[in-house]
Predict the 3D structure of the following.
Amino acid sequence: METLEMVRDGEKQTRRDAFDFVREIHQGQSRAGVYAAAGLVLIGAAIMLPHGCFLQPGTVWKFWAGAAVATLGFGLSLRENFSARTTVSLFWIVAIGARLILLGMEPGDDIWRYLWDGKVRLHGINPYLSSPADSNLAPLREAWWAKMNHRDLSASYPPAAETAFAAFAAMSCTGIFFKLAFVGADLAIVWLLWRKFRQAAILYAWNPLVLYVFAGGGHFDSLFVLPMVGAWVLLEAPAGAGASRERPWLSAALLLGLSVAVKWMSLPLCAWLVWRCWKERGRARAWAVAILAVAPLLLTWFLIFPGTKFHELAPTQAMLYARSSEFFPWVVGLISKKSLYTNQPFMLLLVPLTVWVIGAERRFDRAAETYFFGLLILSPAIHAWYFVWLLPWAVRSRNWGAILGSASFFVYFWLQQRQALSLEWTQTPLQKLLLWSPIIAGFFCSRWRETRSNEDSNPSPFFERSGSAS
């Protein structure tokens, strides 16, 4: 009898040993995959680094090579498990390290406009009422003045953005300092997403398009996205007792208002917040939310740029006629050539889009994802950095449109190659389809899967191996 029990105990121990052995192999393979993904992202960033000056013909091909390597690492990282303490550290090493590598990259030409607007404001000049081409401002020109685009137009960014440019210029009117400010906001987004979703935040943190847009290209959209992500975190924070239950609504309204004052595009999300507050907290609280949502815009407008009229806050002619990487307006243009000469009908489509989002979506991140997807599809002028607006919300939804678009939107940079060759800023039908079809197909495929499962946050199979970080 004792012999039989010993045999059984031995069999159990053997099975446990075999299980532990298989688990160790799996963990070792997973950890190896994590390190391989990290290495590819960093190597890709290093390859992209010297190829940021798209005005030189042929640069885009070399830039794409680095982007392809980083995208390969990004795709691999989405399937790996970050439960080990060492790989959690690796998450941050790559998130910060890749951005530090790309800080030395030649920025896009938009950054020189940020510097100019900030500098002239420090000299008491209203950038909404003047343009860089004004001969009276010639004494303020520096070597980078010639790199600016649209020098004949006045400032086009909302008052809070222009205020930020002036504040940064007061500290250091250099491209690298502005980049550091934008990357700081970018890493704050990573931190908020990490706190909320742990390893799933890698979809944003290691995303090659995000890495280029802020650290490489030097675009200021991180200042726009950060307040929205902050509002999202507040709205989903555990409710306290008494007066503290009201704070998320008011604080979120203030943050969303700040994002509107940085870039107009989040205004419909303010409308969504007011409506949801009206439904859940009543009319009085909704009015308070509405007032706080417009406060940042009004304060920066009237205090920092007094005397500026509303129509002077943006060059409307450029907004009404500019085209870039558009999808739906391009499709309409294939049917009606007249639509190619004005953007007004497509801008008006944002009204029913907003109404749909307000009526259909109950969760802030879901509303933001739906709205920004619709905005990207409908807008007549799209740039690669606009796609970043969609990515924070995909950290929860794992939407395939966001994942695939993080790779396909690099097609946009072929326009830079055409500009370097002094050709028109237009895309071929094939380039349009390569850029947009993965995004549209992936987005609706993910939404269809959610509908079938009747669960908004159902992860796609791409993430089934992921676990929570310790």
